[in-house]
């Protein structure tokens, strides 16, 4: 991190130290600013309006993202291929697909797209599997 304050805010995510909590839903935030921005969702106040279709949004960021519907703008580019997306969350999900592989078990005929699923499955073949809860051993 280039600034100490940014590091401290980030560290709160790991330590749960000085987190701010939403009274409506309990979600936690590292800064008061982010909490207040989130609380607008519960208030129902939508003060940002699209000048093209009249849709209203809670935050300016949501309005900016929405405007891409009218302009066709897709600013979130995949780092692995040529595809672009209007929402960063869609791009992130797409990028995870690039990272996922085909993990085949060398002890049985099962294969997995996610390394975490493959790793959990591999444990079912080891001696450690005798200590797993029987209700969990569905791998």
Structure overview:
This protein has helices at residues 4-15, 32-43, 60-71, 88-99, 115-124, and strands at 20-21, 28-29, 48-49, 56-57, 76-77, 84-85, 103-104, 111-112. With 139 residues, it is α+β, with helices and mostly antiparallel strands. It folds into three domains: 4-43, 2-Layer Sandwich (Double Stranded RNA Binding Domain); 48-98, Classic Zinc Finger (Double Stranded RNA Binding Domain); 107-139, no CATH class. The chain has a two-stranded antiparallel sheet with strand order 1-2. A two-stranded antiparallel sheet has the order 3-4. Strands 5-6 form a two-stranded antiparallel sheet. Strand 1 and strand 2 form a beta hairpin. It comes from Maylandia zebra. Residues 20-47, 48-75, 76-98, 103-126 form the C2H2-type domain.
Describe the secondary structure blueprint for this structure:
Elements: H1 4-15, E1 20-21, E2 28-29, H2 32-43, E3 48-49, E4 56-57, H3 60-71, E5 76-77, E6 84-85, H4 88-99, E7 103-104, E8 111-112, H5 115-124
Antiparallel strand pairs: 1-2, 3-4, 5-6, 7-8
Keywords:
single chain, 139 residues, alpha+beta, Double Stranded RNA Binding Domain, two-stranded antiparallel ribbon, extended
Short description:
InterPro entries: Znf_C2H2_sf, Znf_C2H2_type. The protein has 139 residues and is of the alpha+beta class.
Radius of gyration: 22 Å
As a percent range, the share of strand residues is 5-15%
Structural class, by secondary structure, is alpha+beta
Record field, number of beta strands: 8
What is the H-and-E element order?
A: HEEHEEHEEHEEH
> Tell me, what's the shape?
extended
CATH superfamily of the largest domain: Classic Zinc Finger
**Would you identify the regions where 5 or more consecutive residues have pLDDT less than 50?**
none
Class of the largest domain, according to the CATH hierarchy? Alpha Beta
Q: What CATH architecture of the largest domain would you give?
A: 2-Layer Sandwich
What is the spatial order of strands in the main beta sheet? 1-2
Compute the average pLDDT: 82
């Amino acid at each position: 991190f280039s600034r100490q304050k940014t590091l401290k805010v980030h560290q709160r995510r790991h330590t749960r130290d000085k987190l701010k909590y939403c009274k409506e839903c309990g979600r936690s935030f590292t800064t008061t600013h982010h909490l207040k921005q989130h609380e607008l969702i519960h208030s129902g106040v939508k003060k940002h309006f699209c000048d093209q279709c009249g849709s209203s949004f809670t935050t300016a960021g949501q309005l900016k993202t929405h405007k891409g519907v009218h302009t066709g703008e897709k600013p979130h580019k995949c780092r692995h291929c040529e595809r672009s997306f209007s929402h960063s969350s869609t791009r992130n999900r797409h990028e995870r697909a690039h990272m996922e592989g085909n993990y085949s078990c060398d002890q049985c005929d099962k294969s997995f797209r996610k390394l975490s699923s493959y790793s959990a499955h591999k444990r079912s073949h080891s001696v450690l599997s005798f200590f797993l809860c029987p209700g969990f051993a569905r791998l």
